[in-house]
Amino acid sequence: MKKFSLLLCLLSLSIPLELFGQLQSPQEYFHGNYSKKFTGHAAILAYIQHLSANSDKIKWVPYGQTNEGRTLGICMISSAENLSKAEEIRKNHLAASGVSKDQSSAKDEKCIIWLSHGVHGNEAGATESSIQTMYDLVNPNNVNTREWLKNTIVLLDPSVNPDGYDRYCNWNNSVSNLQLQIDPQSREHQEPWPGGRPNHYYFDLNRDWAWQSQIETQQRLVMYNKWLPVIHVDAHEMYKDNSYYFAPAAEPYHAYITPWQREFQEKVGRNNAKYFDAHRWLYYTGEYFDLLYPAYGDTYPTFRGAIGMTYEQAGHGAAGRAIITDNGDTLTLADRIDHHNTAILSTVEMASKNAVQLNDEFAKYIRQSIQKPIGKFKTYWIKGDWNSDRMLALRNLLDRNSIVYGQGKSNMEVNASYSYATATTAKGKLDSSDLVIPASQAFSTLLQVLFEPEAALKDSLTYDITAWAIPYAYGLEVYASTETLEFRSPKVAVRKSKTTPAPYAICIPWTDLGAAKAVSKLEQAGLVIRVSTKPLTIEGKMYQPGSLMLLAADHRKNADWDKIAYAILNALPVDFFPLSSGWLAQGNNLGSDTYRLLKTSKVALVSGPSTNENSMGHVWHFMEAELGFPLSILDAEDLSRLRLSDYNTLIFPDGSYDLKTDFLETWVKGGGKLILMGAANQMVAGKPNFHLINKEADKKSDSLKVAVAPIHYSDRERSELSNAIFGAAIEVDVDLSHPLGYGLNAKTYFLKTSGRVYKYDDGLTMVGTIGKNPRISGFVGAKKKITLKESLFFAVESMGAGQVVYLSDEPLFRSMWYDGKLLMANAIFMSLR
User: Fold this and answer.
1) 344 — phi, psi (to 5°)?
2) How high is the pLDDT of residue 456?
3) Cα–Cα distance measured from residue 773 to residue 789, given in angstroms and rounded to the nearest whole number
4) 383, 417 contact by CB (below 8 A)
5) Which among 306, 528, 781, 802 could bridge 724 via Cys, Cβ 3.0 to 4.6 Å?
C-alpha cells in the first residue's frame, strides 16, 4: 500500500495540475455537437467560463457591449506564470517599444499576438474555430502549445461581431434539416437579407478600424491600444469553392509597408504551408487580398508597426453545416474549423519562435516613427474653430487612433506649405490657434497614410477604395510642411453657456453637423424653425445661406421656447447667437419671407432584399445614432400598399429596385421628398417624367480615341481598368445658394465609389456638378476620367408640390466622409424648393 501511495505521489509530480480538474474538450462540453451545428455567442461565453474555471492558462477580459447587449471581450491565454504578471508584461512591452514614456530596464521577451475571429458574423466558421483554438492552447497535454505559451501572450477575440454572428446562427439553426443537407439550393444555404455579415447597424466592421464609427470597433480599439500586439490575425471566410488564403498578401502593398513586415508575412505563410501540405489541403497566397486601404484588420495593425494578416477559409454564410462543392467534394463545418485552427496555431508557433526579433522590429518601427518618420511632410496644421462639430469629429478620430496633436506655439510664416485645397505649394500662415499634428510620433505611419493627398499605390488592381485623405473627407483647411514646427499642448476654450433672457430670435449658422443635430433636437421639442435663404452677418461675421432662425413671434403659445432652445443648444457643439432685434445691419430683417419655415421631418427609410444592407445601415446609423432622429423603416416590397402620406421624406438607399414608379410620382407631387442614393437612381433614370439621364461617353468623340492594341488574354482584367473607379475623391462644384449645398464649400470633395455617371440637364436644379478639369485623389481609369467631365453629382427635380433628390453616390459611405453627412442632412431637413 505504501509503495502504491509513493508511486501515485511521484506520478502527480509529473502530471500537469490541470488534469486533476474537469477541463473538457469542445466535443465533450457540447455533447458531441461541436462542429455539427452552430454554437451561438452565449454558448461560447459559457465554454470560456468553463475553461477559465478549470485552467490557469486562460482569463476572460470583457471590453464592452454591442448595440444589442452582447458582451465583447478577449481571452488572455498564456502560461500561468505569464498571466500572473500580465500587467507587468504589458507595461514593459509598451515601454520597451517606446510607445509609453515609462522607463523599464526589463527586456521585452514576451510576444503579444491578437487573434480576431468572425468580424463578419455569417463567416461563422471563423468564430466556431476560436473554440477549438482556445482549447488547444490551454490543453495541458498539448506539448507544443505549452512550450509556445512560455514566451507568448495570445489575446483571442472569439467573436468580433456577436450581433451578426447570432443573427446568422439563430437563422441557420432554425431552418436546418435534421440530416445534413449539402444541396446549395436548400433553404439552409439561402441566407435571407440582411444576412449575418454586418453588425446591428448593418456596417461592415472589417472596414471600420481606422474610422471607428461603430461601438464594437471603438471599444475593441481601446483594449487593442492597451496591448499593441506585434501580430494580428483576422480570421474570415470566403465562398465555398475557394480553398484557403493566408499570407503573404497580394499587391498592391502600400509603399510604407516595411521590408521586415513583408519578410515575416512570407515566413508565416511558409510555416502555414508546411502544415497544409502535410494534410494535402489546398491553399493560395499573394492574390486578391491586398494591403492598401488603411481600415482593414490586416492593414490597420500593419500601419501601426505590427504584422497584420488576413486568413480566409472557404465557407461563408451559404456553406451552412456542409455543402457540396463544384468538384463534387463536401465542405463541412468541421473542415473549416480544422483549417483555421491549423493556420492560427501555426502562426502562434511562429510568434513564439521569433519572439525576440518581432519585439525588436516593433520597437525599431516605433523609434523610427518618432525619430525619422516616413513620408515627406513633417507637420500638418488645420484651421478652424476647436469647438466646432467638424473639428470635434476630427479630434475624436485622432484621439481614438492615438495620434498626438497640439496647438501652434506662435503665429508664423511657413515656407513650402502644401495646401490641400489648391494642391499647390507656397508660403503658409500658421496661427497659434491652429491644430498642429507632428509627424514625429509613435504612430506616424498611420498618420501619414490617413493624410496623404494621394495613396501610395504601386498597383491599380486593388480590393477597395483608393482615396481616404482626412483633409478631403472632413472638408477642412489643411496645410502640410516639410519643416518640423513647434507646438504646445492644446488649450481648448470652454464654450460658455448662453442664456440671454427674452430674445427676439436665436440664430444658428448652418456650417457643420452641429446645426443638423440641433434641428433634430429642436424639431423633436416642437419648436418652429426657419432657415435663411440669403447670406447674413452676425457679430461681424458673414454666414452663407442656411442659417437657422428661431423667432419669438413663431412661439407665442410657448412661453418657455427660449429656455427649451438654450438647454438643447448649450449641450451641443454648435454656435448660436441670441438676437435682441429683428433688424440686421447686414442681411434681410427677420420678418422677411426669405426666412422660410422648415417642415417637421417625417422620415421613412426603405429596406429589404432589394436594398444594399450596408447603405441602408449607413442611413439608419446616421439618423439614429449620430443625429438622434426617429425614423420609420419600411420594406421596399410593401411601399405600394402602405400609407405613404404619413411621411414627407422617403429615402431609398443604394440598391437594385424593380418597382413601378407611378405611386411614388403621385406621392412626390403631393408634397413628398424622394431621396435616391447610388444605384437607387437607376429606378427612375431615363424614365418619362424624370429628367435624370445616364451619361454615356460619345464613342465617336475624338477625345475618346485611344490607340487600340491587341490585348493578351492574361491581361484582360487589367485592360478593363480604363473604365474603372476604385473609390476616388472627386472635386465637385457646389451651388452654395441652393439648400442642398448649404454649409459646404464651393469646391467640395466627395467620395465616388461607382462608375455611374449622369448628364447635365436643364430640367434639373444642378447643385453639385463635376467640371471640365476636376481634381481627383485616388484611382480613376483614363476613359472614366473623360466620362466624368461635366457630369452631374447631385441635383434636385421639382415635381408638383414635392421634389426628387438625386445623390449619384452614397454620401454616408462607411460613415467616413463628413461633408457627405452634411449633404445628407441638407437633403433630409432643408426645404429644397
Assistant:
1) -70, -40
2) 67
3) 7
4) no
5) 781
Residue at 817: amino acid letter: W
SS3 content of the chain, % helix, strand, coil (to 5): 35, 20, 40
The predicted-structure confidence for 746-797, as pLDDT tens digits, reads as follows 999 999 999 999 999 999 999 999 999 999 999 998 889 999 999 999 999 9
Cα three-residue angle 732-733-734, rounded to 5 degrees: 110
Q: What is the pLDDT of residues 719-743, one digit of tens each?
A: 456 778 889 999 999 999 999 999 9
Closest by CA to 236, choosing from 106, 107, 125, 358, is 125
Please state the pTM of the whole predicted model: 0.93
Strand partners, 235: 117, 311
Residues with Cβ within 8 Å of residue 169, at least 6 apart in sequence: 38, 39, 40, 41, 124, 196
CA angle 48, 49, 51 (to 5 degrees): 65
Q: What are phi and psi of 137, to 5 degrees?
A: -75, -35
Angle, helices 333-353 vs 355-371, to 10°: value is: 70
Give the separation between CA 744 and CA 725, rounded to whole angstroms. Answer: 24
pLDDT above 90 coverage of the chain, percent: 85
Residues 6+ apart with CB under 8 A from 302: 257, 261, 291, 308
Look up residue 458 and give its DSSP letter: S
User: Can the peptide bond before residue 490 be classed as cis, meaning omega within 30 degrees of 0?
Assistant: no
Are 653 and 678 in contact by the 8 Å Cβ rule? The answer is yes
Cis peptide, bond prior to residue 248, ω within 30 of zero = yes
What confidence score (pLDDT) does residue 330 get? 97
Which grid coordinates belong to 690? 424624370
CA–CA gap between residue 464 and residue 824 (Å, rounded): 23
Place of cell 466558421: 125
Q: How far apart are CA 623 and CA 437, in angstroms?
A: 31
Residue type, 588: N
Place of cell 499647390: 424
DSSP structure string for 475-518: T-EEEEESS---EE---PPPPPP---SS-SEEEE--SSHHHHHH
Who contacts 653 (Cβ-Cβ below 8 Å, separation ≥6)? 605, 606, 607, 611, 612, 615, 616, 618, 619, 677, 678, 680, 810
Residue at 246: amino acid letter: F
The angle, 0 to 180 degrees and rounded to 10, between the axes of the packed helices 259-279 and 333-353 is: 130
Distances (CA, A) of 359 to 107, 249, 364: 10, 22, 8
- Distance between CA atoms of residues 557 and 28, nearest Å: 70
pLDDT for 669-713, tens place per residue? 999 999 999 999 999 999 999 999 998 744 444 344 444 455 454
Helix H or strand E encompassing 732: strand 725-734
pLDDT at 263 over 70: yes
